[in-house]
Specification:
Number of helices of chain A: 9
Number of strands of chain B: 0
Radius of gyration of chain A: 18 Å
Number of strands of chain A: 0
Structural class of chain B: mainly alpha
Oligomer: heterotrimer
Strand content of chain B: under 5%
Order of helices and strands of chain B: HHHHHHH
Largest interface: A-B, 30 and 30 residues
Order of helices and strands of chain A: HHHHHHHHH
Shape of chain A: globular
Structural class of chain A: mainly alpha
Distance between the termini of chain A: 32 Å
Distance between the termini of chain B: 29 Å
Largest sheet of chain A: none
């Protein structure tokens, strides 16, 4: 109940900053444009690499804005109030992660059919990409919140976040893309699908605790 | 347990302990290094497939072993710091990181030099080279993270967290990269199965590993001593 | 009872305070005074649980507040620092609701209080510093905390605001509440003093 109330208020706040929602989308489309220019409009290569391009662009646009996740709440003192309140930091981290996913990943997923058509992907391929992104992006978001909590008060934190978190995201990327690979070859993709889901479950159980811990120590020793 | 560890890792005790240990470490390092060098380069026969080129194994294997071992050591220090509030843990971690990063870089360089005669190319995106490269990024991430804060203590705490997350991730990364692509020859040394290596090659190799392990300990103790000395003054 | 034992804190070689001990009993009011940079804010942050002391302990009802299992202090203490914890993208009422949700408190703030303070239900962005302060101080009304820790509660406030806060504080103390605060202004409250 309290969780829901907090979620709604956080959502209201974010919806009023619509610029933050559009810019990652904008970045995603731009980076895809750049990839397609880079491949000289060779449609056969482009069609083959489209899932990788989409996944990598999603990951990058997600990490690029992640360093702002907690800065506002830290600047206005809200984070301190959460730390001192009976509401646990873990709840707050979950609220933040869910809102961040809704803000960045949901628009991307909704836009996916359009992007797929522009890469001339089939309906089946778009469906598979959507499923893998649905399983992969929450893990990315959880890693991004962890990164944002760790680098909250560091210098050059935007680039540092990507440097810290990108290596940790590689397994998710690998299993996500191998599902698409296997599916497009007509093979069974149960094994990588299981791995991707297992990674999601593991990160969902462990990472928020670490994130909350990082936020607490970050405030304590500031 | 807590008091014992805090006593063992108190700056003063550590300083005295390391001063007593260092001469022994030098001794073990020199003995095993020269035995490994002579045994590996002169006494052991060339490999029947790879010729003399395989001899880089006497550097490559110790380097890649230590690159992982030092990260594990750092994670252990992080755990000591979190659970038993040992202050020396951060100094030990910070002293270890550049050594570990250098060993990782050396493992990558020797690996690619070995790759040239074996695969005909310096770099292949195979499982172990790639995960070694990712390990290098984990080290660099730790080093730049600890330096990115206005206050040192904050950097240390952030560093501990990222190393703990990293150590849990390393097996997952390794496995996933292995899944993604593998071209490397099977592991040369393995605890579970009988090693696929002749004894007159194995002993110099083990002795080189011991030599570099003590080389790490020597560097670690010297670097930590300097930091502790600065603090005690 | 809040008890501080042997608190010490130094900030980059400069010692702010050392071996500071005191107790606060029900109905007590403690004012911390000292010049700029004397460590008043740091002391309040230590007492509220935001910043572990380098030496010493803080006990609430005989339990260490920095012990990770202690949750009672989070409902018993209300801290208001320089940073007010107001989200400027939310309206006034939403901000109040947000903090009530955080505090898990059930008493709603009545709109009459808002009109009395001449605050309107508008986006918080357009509020002045003093109005934001009043909005933050409204948390005192709905709180059931036993100890208030307030950092400069009277700064930026006009005279009616100052009187309103003093009245709230007096009611709180009369109900056997406790208060720790810092202030540069002359305050019409009987309190113990700690000088840093």
């Amino acid at each position: 109940m309290f969780f829901l109330k907090l979620l709604i208020l956080e959502f209201k706040q974010n919806i009023r900053r619509y610029n933050d929602i559009f810019m990652p989308l904008w970045f995603l489309i731009l980076s895809m444009l750049i990839f397609s220019i880079g491949f000289q409009q060779d449609s056969s290569i482009l069609k083959k690499t489209a899932p990788s391009i989409i996944w990598v662009s999603v990951l990058l646009s997600l990490l690029l804005s992640a360093n702002q996740l907690f800065t506002q709440d830290d600047d206005n003192g809200f984070l301190e109030q959460v730390l001192l309140s009976p509401t646990s930091l873990l709840t707050f981290v979950w609220v933040k992660a869910i809102i961040y996913w809704l803000k960045i990943c949901l628009p991307l997923l909704l836009l996916l059919p359009v992007i797929g058509i522009s890469f001339s992907l089939s309906y089946f391929e778009i469906k598979i990409i959507a499923i893998t992104l649905l399983l992969g992006t929450p893990s990315f978001v959880l890693f991004a919140t962890l990164g944002a909590a760790i680098i909250l008060r560091a210098h050059h934190n935007a680039i540092l976040l990507s440097l810290l978190i990108l290596p940790l995201c590689i397994p998710i990327l690998i299993f996500g893309l191998s599902i698409i690979d296997d599916a497009s070859c007509g093979l069974s993709f149960t094994t990588p699908l299981c791995f991707l889901s297992a990674l999601l479950l593991t990160s969902a159980t462990l990472l928020p605790f670490v994130t909350a811990f990082a936020l607490r120590t970050g405030i304590h020793y500031a | 347990m807590k008091h014992l560890l805090q006593h063992l890792f108190s700056p003063k005790y550590f300083y005295q302990f390391s001063r007593k240990c260092l001469p022994w470490f030098y001794f073990i390092f020199f003995i095993s290094f020269f035995y490994g060098l002579i045994g590996g380069l002169i006494l052991s026969p060339p490999d029947y497939q790879q010729g003399d080129a395989f001899r880089i194994i006497y550097l490559h294997v110790p380097f890649s072993f230590l690159s992982l071992f030092i990260y594990l050591a750092m994670a252990t220090f992080a755990l000591l710091g979190f659970v038993w509030k040992i202050k020396l843990a951060d100094i030990l971690m910070r002293a270890s990181a550049p050594i570990g990063a250098s060993f990782t870089l050396l493992a990558l360089i020797t690996g690619s030099l070995w790759g040239k005669p074996m695969w005909g190319t310096y770099w292949i995106w195979d499982a172990r080279l790639t995960s070694e490269l990712i390990l290098l990024f984990l080290y660099l991430g730790y080093i730049s993270l600890t330096q990115a804060y206005p206050q040192q203590q904050q950097g240390h705490l952030a560093g501990r967290i990222i190393v703990m997350v990293g150590i849990i991730n390393i097996p997952i990364i390794h496995y996933s990269v292995y899944w993604w692509n593998t071209l490397h020859q099977g592991a040369t040394l393995s605890k579970l199965s009988k090693p696929s290596i002749a004894n007159n090659m194995l002993y110099p190799l083990l002795s080189m590993i011991i030599a570099f392990l003590f080389y790490y300990l020597i560097l670690l103790f010297l670097r930590t001593q300097r930091e502790v000395f600065k603090k005690l003054q | 009872m809040l008890q501080a034992l042997g608190l010490s804190y130094q900030y980059s070689e400069k010692s702010l305070f050392s071996n500071l001990s005191f107790e606060i009993n029900p109905g007590d009011c403690l004012q911390i005074i000292g010049g700029n940079g004397a460590g008043k804010t740091t002391l309040l942050r230590i007492l509220s649980g935001l910043c572990p002391p380098q030496k010493g302990k803080v006990y609430w009802q005989h339990q260490d507040i920095y012990h990770s299992q202690l949750h009672t202090y989070n409902t018993d203490r209300l801290y208001l620092g320089h940073k007010l914890g107001i989200k400027t993208d939310l309206t006034l009422f939403e901000n109040l609701k947000l903090h009530q949700t955080l505090q898990r408190s059930e008493h709603p703030v009545s709109p009459t209080e808002l009109t009395w303070l001449q605050l309107k239900n508008i986006a918080t962005k357009s509020l002045s510093a003093g109005e934001q302060k009043k909005l933050a101080l409204l948390r005192l009304l709905s709180s059931s905390a036993l100890i208030w820790i307030l950092d400069e509660p009277f700064s930026n406030l006009d005279e009616t605001g100052t009187n309103w806060v003093q009245e709230l504080i007096k009611q709180h103390l009369a109900k056997k509440g406790r208060l720790i605060f810092t202030s540069h202004q002359k305050v019409n409250l009987t309190s113990q003093l700690i000088e840093l």
